[in-house]
Amino acid sequence: DIQLTQSPSFLSASVGDRVTITCRASQGISSYLAWYQLKPGKVPKLLIYAASTLQSGVPSRFSGSGSGTEFTLTITSLQPEDFATYYCQEHNRYPPFTFGGGTKVEIK
Amino acid sequence: QVTLKESGPVLVKPTETLTLTCTVSGFSVTNVRMGISWIRQPPGKALEWLAHMFSNDAKSYSTSLKDRVTISKDTSKSQVVLTMTDMDPIDTATYFCARVDFGGTVDLWGQGALVTVSS
In chain A, positions 24-53, which contact chain B (CB-CB < 8 Å)? Predict the structure, then answer.
């Protein structure tokens, strides 16, 4: 099975900061990578799929890039509502559905 | 409105069987372009996929949990049910049901159900 490694696992940032999260796959997955946002008590949200396609309704400050084994999620100008935990997921060959270990973004 | 909602016990005892129900609205569980998965998140830990029900009733399970987990569907009630046997405190988690689109992404999540395993 494919393994996804996210880094960092935790980051502290301020409102207005640019934030980048990396997801590395143990083998090439073309562009079949999605990103999700999870907040306690809230319904999780799909942000990006196919590595760089923004899900409808997601603010344009979120962007994704990469292909093969290395991917990034970038949040330009971090907003208060963006403090959350972010997960990557490989969506090429499924099941199984594989998620990364998560990156928690907290307020500095 | 398109939603999924999990329901079931908040607390189960060790060795008991957990049954969780996912009730969907606004779409059909037989839609050929979608499937339903169960995913969990233990406190402070990462997401873990448990089981998947395809629209054609085919099923798939996590290798590590396949001996304990069963997924089933009641089309007449628009429900997908997860059963997990021999519950242990390490199974304490928020359990999500989730709609998986044809491309393999989870395009819709339930709000999650926190299940605590404790005597």
Answer: 32, 34, 36, 38, 42-46, 49-50
Parallel/antiparallel/unpaired status of strands A53-54 and A62-67: unpaired
Tally A–B CB contacts below 8 A.
Answer: 61
Q: What is the rounded average pLDDT of the residues B87-105? A: 95
Q: What is the pLDDT of residue A77?
A: 93
A102: chain B residues, CB-CB within 8 Å: 46-47
Q: Which residues contact B23 (CB under 8 A, 6 or more apart)?
A: B4, B5, B7, B77, B78, B79
Of chain A, the percentage scoring pLDDT greater than 90 comes to 90
pLDDT at B56: 87
Residues of A in contact with B103 (CB under 8 A): 49-50, 91
Average pLDDT estimate for B64-84: 95
